[in-house]
Amino acid sequence: MTDAERFDAHVAAEGKVEPKDWMPDAYRKTLVRQISQHAHSEIIGMQPEGNWLTRAPSLRRKAILLAKVQDEAGHGLYLYAAAETLGTSRDQMVDDLIAGKAKYSSIFNYPTPTWADIGAIGWLVDGAAIMNQVPLCRCSYGPYARAMKRICKEESFHQRQGYDILVSLCRGSDRQKQMAQDALDRWWWPSLMMFGPNDDASPNSAQSMKWRIKRFSNDELRQRFVDATVPQAHFLGLRIPDDELRYDDTAGHWRFGEPDWEEFHRVLAGDGPMNAHRIEHRRRARDDGQWVLDAASAHAAKRRRPAA
Amino acid sequence: MQLWEVFVRARAGLHHQHVGSIHAVDAEMALGNARDVFTRRGEAASIWVVPSTAIVASDPADAAELFEPAMDKVYRHPTFYEVPDGVTNL
């Protein structure tokens, strides 16, 4: 048996892989790409929500949102650390992001013009992320799976806080309810796109499934998300912005229309409403924060030197 | 920055357990970062941080040599022994 055959048999039997184990180069490369993209998404995802920290409508909402944004930073750090075990440094990954060489979830290239968007992000975006992430807790790569377990444990508060914001708005004035509807209209389709292209247009999926990185297809997870979310929208008294949405009694599923894949690819390629802003902001955070790192390093070096 | 491994004791009476890694320039910053990153929900009564380079690990290639000899010593487990019927408290 070759190393590659032994590896394939090991993961096919649900064996786990740890950093120092032998692994195919393509497995390593796939994981670095996926985990770093995931980490970037957590970090870039802090921006649309951070936008509302100073304008949250009450001290309670502000404290909650602050805790959530702080969690996203933590999630990014768990994931960068998992990716680093594969031999790529965090600095390198961040530089690739800022240079436009690495991707992150295209959902964060949409703006958050109202407070209701914060509700929609928690409910829909974190909801979709949970659907994607729960199966990753069983991923074949140990450090990634362990990071995902921590993340999933913390993430369910995020979805509930978002829904809680929308429950309050929908029980409020007509204008507040309209605000919630507008936010749902803005975030519904981009949320469905978070699961990635349709199965027949997702070329890397089969290999990832074979390696036990991925467990369910994009379309399966998207269907699960729609089935879980439509009744929640109905409870709020909001309308999902999809004329094709109907319940299929025999199958027990909500049938829905096709997302605008042309828009998906355009935003992913960099031409979304906020792409340039997000990367520029991240670059500024890196560059403007450099002096803090330099000062801390100089302080540590000075303390390591014995007194003359 | 240096890489540090973080170990957390959930409460007195338990082992410290490895929870992940963080970056820091020195031990003080490592403890602070470990606290912020790994104990936001009351997960810890105590934290250890250890420079990753200080950890000596066994080589996965030696796993068979190191750990397989224990596999055929089933007599180290109490279930190996057949307890005669009627004998209790054994």
| Mean residue pLDDT of chain A | 96
Low-confidence stretches of chain B: none
Strand order of the largest sheet of chain B: 2-1-3
Q: Strand count, sense and closure of the main sheet of chain A?
A: 2 strands, antiparallel
How would you describe the shape of chain B? elongated
Count of alpha and pi helical runs of chain B: 2
**Structural class computed from helices and strand pairing of chain B:** alpha+beta
How is this structure best described in words?
- The complex is a heterodimer of chains A (308) and B (90).
- Chain A is mainly α and 308 residues long.
- Chain A contains 13 helices and 2 strands.
- In chain A, helix 6 runs antiparallel to helix 7 and helix 6 runs antiparallel to helix 10.
- The longest helix of chain A has 29 residues.
- The mean pLDDT of chain A is 96.
- By secondary structure, chain B is an alpha+beta fold.
- Chain B has a domain of 56 residues: Phenylacetic acid degradation B (Ubiquitin-like (UB roll), Roll), CATH 3.10.20.520.
- Helix content of chain B is 19%, strand content 26%.
- Chain B has a 3-stranded antiparallel beta sheet with strand order 2-1-3, covered by helices on one side.
- In chain B, strand 1 and strand 2 form a beta hairpin.
- Chain B starts with a strand and ends in a 23-residue tail after the last helix.
- The mean pLDDT of chain B is 95.
- Chains A and B meet through helix 4, helix 7 and helix 13 of A and strand 2 and helix 1 of B.
How would you describe this structure in keywords?
heterodimer; A: 308 residues; mainly alpha; 13 helices; 2% strand; B: 90 residues; Ubiquitin-like (UB roll); 3-stranded antiparallel beta sheet; 3 strands
Layout: helices, strands, pairs:
The complex is a heterodimer of chains A (308) and B (90).
Chain A: H1 3-12, H2 25-44, H3 46-50, H4 59-84, H5 90-98, H6 115-133, H7 142-170, H8 174-193, H9 205-210, H10 218-236, E1 246-248, E2 253-255, H11 261-268, H12 275-288, H13 290-304
Antiparallel strand pairs in A: 1-2
Chain B: E1 2-9, E2 16-24, H1 27-38, E3 46-51, H2 63-67
Antiparallel strand pairs in B: 1-2, 1-3
